[in-house]
Amino acid sequence: MREGFDDVEWLARTRAEGDLEAWLALVPYARRIGVSALPDPQGDGLLFRLDPREGNVGNVLLPALHGGVVAAFMETAATLDLMLATRAPRLPRIVDISIDYLRTARMAPTLARCSLLREGRRMGNVRVCAWQESEAVPVATARLHFVLGNPAEAGA
Amino acid sequence: MIHGQTSSDADWRRALTRFVTVIPHTRELGLEVLEVTPEMTTMRLPWCDDLLGDTARGLIHGGVLTMLLDTVCGSAVLPALPAPEVCPTLDLRVDHFRPGVAGQPILAEARVVRVTESVVFTEGTLWQETGRPLARGIGNFVRLGPRNTPEGFAEALFAEEDDHA
What we know:
By secondary structure, chain A is of the alpha+beta class. Chain A has a single domain (8-154), classed as Thiol Ester Dehydrase, Chain A. Chain A is built from 5 helices and 8 strands, in the order αααββββαββββα. Chain A has helices spanning 8-17, 20-24, 28-33, 67-85, 151-154; strands at 35-39, 46-50, 57-59, 64-65, 91-101, 110-119, 123-131, 138-149. In chain A, a hairpin with a 6-residue loop joins strand 1 and strand 2. Chain B is of the alpha+beta class. Chain B: Keywords: Hydrolase.
């Protein structure tokens, strides 16, 4: 059996186990920029973390993380969080993202928390907040829309 | 020479090549600047397997497209200004029309729609096959002005190859 998001049994099993490592292993760009997931100390959910890697720098003068890398981190977080949070296994496909850059993201770990604001039959809406020093001082916020695909139909 | 600018399109192509080569993330991905005019900037991101967002289905990570739009729109800002200023991204909106597929480079173009005293409005498009856009981006950039632009920013962009540290 081939492991992948389009394998219904694999997806259901990894989802039940909350095995985000298995999911991230199939997302090379997220691995390249250094995305990981950790239990949220304040609840049942997850926090996501972006490693402050040299290769993520977008401005060498400050230095600051590349805004596009921060966006890619937030999109990864939103996608994985959504895949865990939906009522049944779904395969999200991004429709659009809108990101506001509030502060310079320095060469330090960046954390993100996601909220699934709506899970419809076809569409999901996720809000993401990313911060460094303190959650009350976000470096960026984003909102994303996803089409919620049926994993049983994706493998064709 | 357009609008009496002293830098030619070829100078700007070299300057933006330097700009994306100094940025570690885009340097390591091998981003190339193909063409620069005061109106439009075109780039090419070569294929590498790290761009994938789903290895099983061979699809490009949506975040790669956002990163590329941020880069191409932010680069297009520079030749549109009276003098180069540092312009961080204020906000960015990306619409995903179809997924990008493994094995082919991604082409990116961006144009500046309007420059005001404080903001530069841009829009960009990505594609792998002509006429089949992958994504559209709308990026707004803040002009920090000469006071907040580090000294030597313009000189660094246009420096000779061998003076570059």
